[in-house]
């Protein structure tokens, strides 16, 4: 079972954190920090400290129950042992059909069939910091677009000659794309384009894209019967996250944690 992150509202970790009788100092936090990329070093350190606390709470609980160690002698986590512990300890109610139907009616867009686009592209690669390359590739893109307007059947040829994307081997074919399946800045633009060859290169962090949308399949709402299992899975995940937060806070109170709180607003936020 994958461990679900528990939110931490504290500003920064203390120099020394204690879980029961086990202490974590700056060195332990520093070793863990690279595994938690964040917007700032302070946030990454906080996430690292939180991860250490959660891991230690669970490890000590497993030891109390006589279960296999969650971390081996070399410091590697035992995912199977973690799953055994959480499956034994967490009480996650199974959502009934009425709850599933209420959730579905409230979140129908989440369970709709998204708009699909059948797309071809030519990627003219240039990194954001290389202004000269981006300018040169943009001019090349304009030239290629003029060639494609005069000869639409040349897309495969030009993709194979110029595209930096592996899709060049398929003539630039990306197949059917749904929202979220390509780089964010290109994904946003694609949703608003009509069928056909787009008149100008589109920018992304990878360079410039010449885009041709061959088909557009509009999204549609799906009936409950078709998505019932997805709805049930979503509710089960929500219940699991809630149960895990309760469980960790109970362990925090029972074992004792100094220098960091798992949830500074636990009383008011757990059930939201």
Automatic annotation (TrEMBL):
**Residue span(s) of domain PpiC:** 114-215
GO molecular function terms listed in the Swiss-Prot or TrEMBL record: peptidyl-prolyl cis-trans isomerase activity
Pfam families in the record, alphabetically? Rotamase
Keywords associated with the record: Isomerase, Rotamase
Chemical reaction(s) catalysed: [protein]-peptidylproline (omega=180) = [protein]-peptidylproline (omega=0)
* Gene3D superfamilies the UniProt entry points to: 3.10.50.40
Metal-binding as a keyword of this entry, yes or no, is no
PANTHER family given in the database record? PEPTIDYL-PROLYL CIS-TRANS ISOMERASE HP_0175-RELATED, PEPTIDYLPROLYL ISOMERASE
Family as reported in the entry's similarity comment: Belongs to the PpiC/parvulin rotamase family.
* Name of the protein: peptidylprolyl isomerase
